[in-house]
From TrEMBL:
GO terms for biological process: CTP biosynthetic process; GTP biosynthetic process; response to hydrogen peroxide; UTP biosynthetic process. Its cofactor is Mg(2+). Keywords: ATP-binding, Kinase, Nucleotide-binding, Transferase. Its EC number is 2.7.4.6. The keyword Kinase applies. The chain holds residues 88 to 224 of 254 of the full protein. It catalyses: a 2'-deoxyribonucleoside 5'-diphosphate + ATP = a 2'-deoxyribonucleoside 5'-triphosphate + ADP; a ribonucleoside 5'-diphosphate + ATP = a ribonucleoside 5'-triphosphate + ADP. Belongs to the NDK family. The lineage of its organism: Eukaryota, Viridiplantae, Streptophyta, Embryophyta, Tracheophyta. This is Nucleoside diphosphate kinase. It is an enzyme of class 2 (transferase).
Amino acid sequence: VDESYIMVKPDGVQRGFVGEIISRFERKGFKLKGLKLFQCSKELAEEHYKELKAKPFFPKLVDYITSGPVVCMAWEGVGVVASARKLIGSTDPLQAEPGTIRGDLAVQTGRNIIHGSDSPENGKREIGCGSTMALAC
Ligand code: ATP
Ligand code: MG
């Protein structure tokens, strides 16, 4: 069965959307496998987003993700990775469809409240040992 790593980013936690986001995944029918509130270190943020290291916005992205506690979650279900991306909506919240999490709750790409794995392989990496979800195992 597929697993997706879903992370409510610091602005999503601060704005009080943890319950709303969990509800949307529960209503869709996915199964919650792990959950924790976590202050992400610079090192782990850089590891999590290592594919974006060369982007000009990378330092700001690391500052953003480490600016307050995040909520780390592992969700399980058939097709959960692609489905979660649909529930979340486009990276730029102004392009995200109404009805999606970003489309309903955010306006800025640099403050888009939630992360979702972009492939089953990255889902495994982002939940596995050395990740924000499973630090040491
Ligand atoms: P995530 O990986 O967080 O789920 P995503 O897969 O939709 O988001 P990515 O391309 O992986 O988008 O970018 C990771 C994150 O980096 C984005 O969610 C956003 O917070 C930030 N980001 C992406 N592009 C920009 C940009 N042009 N300016 C500022 N921040 C950006
Ligand atoms: Mg991504």
